[in-house]
């Protein structure tokens, strides 16, 4: 290789080396700048995170203070409300009826009585209520829910207050007392109804006739006289009745129960009213008097029957022979003539009768009993009719004196 070529190669090598050295220096500078930049970014990120964390802690503290302040205000308000129970302070007054309340919310609820507002509506039957709680109780009618159960019997209710009232049937408690007659009741509502007996108030009026009552249930029963509705049905004989209390009477006929006992004659009855009538036979009381003839009876129904003697009214008519009667029972007895029915049978001789009184008279032929005594000669008879005939021998009365005998 000549000298010129050798110098050229040496120069090229030097230039290449210097070029690589420049590149290396440049890369190192850039790398150094990149490292510095990355460190600065990390520092800034840490500072931002620290600032955000500080702000978050500050926000949480503010939120806690706000909750604490709200809680304190709520507790202070509730304490203030509760204190009105002890102080009996009632600063919220109704402008309509002047009734006072210890809470503003209670006044707002009360005002719905005057305005008739019922904002809470049942989605099932569309019935409306003035209190949300009343709607909740009402919904149990549709759901069948009865969460309040008696610990003694199987009674359950959809209303807590109803259970409390029911428990008084077990305890016998009657905390509500009438100031007039001292009678006690297990419900305040029953006392309020009872007070109308003393005041004479009958605020519940029939929309069809002039009937009025002091009791809502009595008015409801009365309305059935207009509608003919008899929703209470006997499971034994399938008879229907207007009211539940009336069903209790025929049920005792089916069961034979006679819970009402006379202390005088020890006779038992299936109705309290029948016992009261029986007691009048012992006391001789006849408080129902006829305005026409002054005849007195011990039963109001008997006075109504007696009055038909004066009026000639015979409202009960036989569909077979058109014969009329002033008593329903007389028509029933008469119908046995057509049907041949003789439901009253003697246990001794098996003889049958179509009237109970005929069986009673017949039984005296077996017992020898003669309860009807003549006050004049002391002669005794087993039937009242025979005594009446006998008395004519003493009085000389001849009510059936015939004119035929005088012709011979």
TrEMBL record:
Gene Ontology MF term list: DNA-binding transcription factor activity, RNA polymerase II-specific; RNA polymerase II cis-regulatory region sequence-specific DNA binding; zinc ion binding
A Pfam family reported for this protein in Swiss-Prot or TrEMBL: zf-C2H2
Compositionally biased residues, Basic and acidic residues: 41-54
UniProt-listed SMART domains: ZnF_C2H2 (SM00355)
Organism: Artemia franciscana (Brine shrimp)
Entry keyword Signal: no
Keywords associated with the record: DNA-binding, Metal-binding, Nucleus, Repeat, Transcription, Transcription regulation, Zinc, Zinc-finger
Taxonomic classification: Eukaryota, Metazoa, Ecdysozoa, Arthropoda, Crustacea
Family: Belongs to the krueppel C2H2-type zinc-finger protein family.
SUPFAM superfamilies cross-referenced by the UniProt entry: beta-beta-alpha zinc fingers (SSF57667)
GO CC, any one term: PcG protein complex
Main location per the UniProt record: nucleus
Compartments where found: Nucleus
Organism superkingdom: Eukaryota
Gene3D superfamilies: Classic Zinc Finger
Name listed for the protein in its UniProt record: C2H2-type domain-containing protein
UniProt domain C2H2-type: residue ranges: 92-119, 120-147, 148-175, 176-203, 204-231, 232-259, 260-287, 288-315, 316-343, 344-371, 372-399
Keyword Methyltransferase: no
Region (Disordered): 34-65
């Amino acid at each position: 290789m000549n000298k010129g070529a050798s110098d050229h190669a040496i120069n090229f090598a030097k230039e290449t080396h210097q070029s690589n050295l420049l590149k290396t220096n440049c890369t190192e500078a850039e790398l150094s700048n990149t490292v510095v930049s990355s460190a600065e970014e990390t520092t800034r990120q840490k500072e931002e995170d620290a600032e955000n964390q500080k702000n978050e802690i500050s926000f949480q503290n503010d939120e806690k203070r706000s909750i604490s302040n709200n809680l304190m205000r709520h507790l202070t308000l509730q304490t203030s409300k509760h204190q009105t129970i002890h102080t009996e302070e009632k600063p919220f007054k109704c402008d309509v009826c002047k009734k006072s309340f210890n809470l503003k919310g209670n006044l707002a609820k009360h005002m719905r009585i005057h305005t008739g507002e019922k904002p809470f509506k049942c989605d099932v039957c569309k019935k409306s209520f003035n209190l949300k709680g009343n709607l909740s109780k009402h919904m149990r009618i549709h759901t069948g829910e009865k969460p309040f159960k008696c610990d003694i019997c199987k009674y359950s209710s959809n209303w807590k207050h109803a259970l409390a009232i029911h428990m008084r049937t077990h305890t016998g408690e009657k905390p509500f007392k009438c100031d007039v007659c001292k009678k006690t009741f297990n419900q305040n509502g029953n006392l309020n109804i009872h007070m109308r007996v003393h005041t004479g108030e009958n605020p519940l009026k029939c929309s069809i006739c002039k009937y009025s009552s002091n009791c809502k249930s009595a008015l409801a029963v009365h309305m059935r006289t207009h509608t003919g509705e008899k929703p209470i049905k006997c499971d034994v004989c399938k008879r229907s009745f207007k009211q539940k209390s009336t069903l209790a009477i025929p049920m005792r006929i089916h069961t034979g129960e006679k819970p009402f006992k006379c202390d005088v004659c020890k006779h038992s009855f299936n109705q309290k009213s029948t016992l009261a009538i029986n007691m009048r036979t012992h006391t001789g009381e006849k408080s129902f008097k006829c305005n026409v003839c002054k005849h007195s009876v011990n039963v109001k129904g008997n006075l109504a029957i007696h009055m038909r003697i004066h009026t000639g009214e015979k409202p009960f008519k036989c569909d077979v022979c058109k014969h009329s009667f002033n008593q329903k029972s007389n028509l029933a007895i008469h119908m046995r003539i057509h049907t041949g029915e003789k439901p009253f049978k003697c246990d001794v001789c098996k003889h049958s009768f179509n009237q109970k009184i005929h069986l009673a008279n017949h039984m005296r032929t077996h017992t020898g009993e003669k309860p009807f005594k003549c006050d004049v000669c002391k002669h005794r008879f087993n039937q009242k009719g025979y005594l009446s005939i006998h008395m004519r021998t003493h009085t000389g009365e001849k009510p059936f004196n015939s004119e035929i005998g005088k012709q011979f």
